[in-house]
Recover the amino acids of this structure.
């Protein structure tokens, strides 16, 4: 048995699992569902390692989710001084994720100095994006000087969902539209297991509106905000775009949680209704756009916390995809992965639970076995 400790630092959470990589089984897990302090993160990891020790489980490797690998860390990589230095170079591109992940890497290296530590970039799944999907229409000098390109994110989630869809629809899941909807949100078109297009780009800010992130907005508007008579500062702009926008901003600060917004909308709160409508509209628009990278659609897949657990959002998105043959006649939540569309639907719709920990464990185990 190869046991992997997975460390998944989100923008406002921390998840860690002990995984039997060979049998894809979670042996133990701990989660913090808010932005944790450094003391809380250490306490969580210490508790999980103590639990493993008391159970006689030996950790063989540690896998760290690295949201942005930048131009250097393009696949799962053993953490050494060179790869860690390269990962730090991408920290400014995902400031809510990368620094936290690398600080946790330092801690687990101290706790488990003789165990291999593996950096698993979310961007790896999109490394093979076609050039037309990866290239920004910017001056060549800028692209070359700054390495400007579309990287894509949520790769560990898309990797798992692609694999599960193939198991659920054997021989009929080669061309997929996937939506990872959670605190961060993006969509992806997959053909033959390969990412063909995705909504996030150079940073995890592009694309869909998210719980507190804006997603794509008019760059001319941002320039105007920086240069008007009473301008915002770049710090104001960053804070607003990353922490005060998305569902939170659309609902006038009511909530960034779709469960709260669905309940409020049912009671007639117009701001919550608008937030959900904008989210569904933009998700459907990005899915429809990504569909142009495919020659057919074998299935639509929802994953991520919202995608897995919010049937109202799924139905609202699918209602806007009728032109692609997608029906909004869907069943509610499931206790396991599977179909939520009617049998015989022209385009099957699936829900698949996000299992980034299993993708992380598989990546680390493959490196350890080499």
């Amino acid at each position: 048995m190869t046991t992997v400790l997975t460390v998944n630092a989100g923008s406002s959470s921390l998840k860690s699992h002990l995984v039997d990589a060979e049998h894809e089984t979670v042996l133990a897990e701990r989660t913090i569902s808010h932005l944790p302090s450094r003391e809380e993160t250490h306490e969580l990891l210490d508790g999980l390692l103590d639990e493993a020790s008391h159970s006689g489980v030996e950790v063989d490797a540690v896998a760290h989710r690295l949201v942005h690998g930048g131009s250097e860390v393009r696949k799962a990589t053993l953490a050494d001084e060179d790869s860690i230095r390269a990962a730090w170079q991408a920290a400014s591109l995902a400031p809510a994720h990368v620094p936290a992940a690398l600080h946790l890497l330092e801690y687990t290296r101290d706790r488990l100095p003789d165990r291999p530590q593996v950096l698993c970039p979310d961007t790896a799944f999109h490394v093979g994006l076609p050039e037309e999907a990866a290239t920004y229409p910017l001056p060549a000098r800028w692209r070359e000087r700054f390495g400007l390109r579309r990287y894509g994110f949520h790769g560990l989630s898309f990797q798992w969902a692609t694999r599960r869809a193939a198991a659920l629809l054997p021989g009929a899941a080669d061309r997929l539209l996937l939506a990872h909807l959670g605190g961060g949100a993006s969509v992806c078109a997959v053909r033959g297991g390969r990412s063909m297009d995705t909504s996030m780009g150079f940073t995890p800010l592009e694309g869909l509106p998210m719980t507190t992130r804006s997603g794509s907005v008019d760059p001319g508007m941002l320039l105007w905000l920086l240069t008007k008579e009473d301008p915002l500062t770049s710090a104001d702009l960053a804070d607003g775009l990353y922490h005060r926008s998305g569902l939170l901003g659309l609902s006038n600060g009511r909530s960034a949680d779709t469960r709260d917004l669905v309940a409020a909308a049912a009671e007639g709160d117009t701001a919550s209704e608008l937030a959900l409508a904008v989210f569904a509209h933009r998700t459907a628009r990005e899915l429809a756009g990504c569909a142009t990278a495919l020659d057919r659609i074998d299935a639509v897949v929802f994953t991520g916390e919202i995608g897995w657990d919010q049937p109202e959002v799924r139905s609202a998105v699918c209602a806007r995809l009728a032109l692609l043959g997608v029906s909004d006649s869907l069943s509610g939540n499931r206790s396991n992965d599977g179909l939520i569309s009617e049998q015989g639907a022209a385009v099957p719709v699936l829900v698949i639970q996000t299992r980034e920990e299993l993708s992380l464990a598989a990546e680390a185990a493959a490196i350890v076995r080499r």
